[in-house]
Amino acid sequence: MFILGYLIMGLALGGELLQAVLYTGREDRARSIVRDITEGLKAIHRKGIIHSDIKPDNILLSTRTPAARALLADFGVSTWCDGAQVLDGRCGTARYMAPEICADRKYGSQVDMWSFGLIAYILVFGKPLLPEGATDDESMQLNAALKPGFLKNTEGHSAEAFGFIKSLLRINPAKRLTAHAAVNHPYL
After folding, report:
1. 2 within domain boundaries
2. Catalytic residue among 28, 36, 53, 104, which?
3. Quick one: which of 26, 60, 75, 113 could link to 12 by a disulfide (CB 3.0–4.6 Å)?
4. CA-to-CA distance for 44 and 94, rounded, in angstroms?
5. What is the pLDDT of residues 86-123, one digit of tens each?
6. 137 counts as catalytic
């Protein structure tokens, strides 16, 4: 059965996320943006939508002010999926792909949470987790080869921020923080 659906978004005049906030590394500003993204992911996952391409370019800011809200955008490769259904096949941006996609395993909405974890890392720590300039193949190999415990808090940020990011970047998607649980995390 084919279902046609529409997503209607408001006008976002603040530009793309990293273009506007440029690797803040400021935990207070990061927290506000991370909270908005968490709420957006919770809303789409509750509706059965998997975005599949969460990356900084697909997060827009509502205005060019410090009070701007972060908004999810570009649902071009998103999928409607009930909770029991699993997907396969590669889609999204290699640098932000979850390990299960990179390893050609079946996946669900938790791929969005992995990608979000990489963005939260950039916002909180002020730099990307994966090396800049990696090719798509290199990014996918790095993501697929990560082992539990790869993430270390050496930057002196709050335990809550580090715990939140660590919960999003769990290799096993079944242990990864869900959007529904993330909104209640102490960091937010």
Report:
1. no
2. 53
3. 60
4. 22
5. 767 777 888 898 988 888 888 889 999 999 999 999 88
6. no
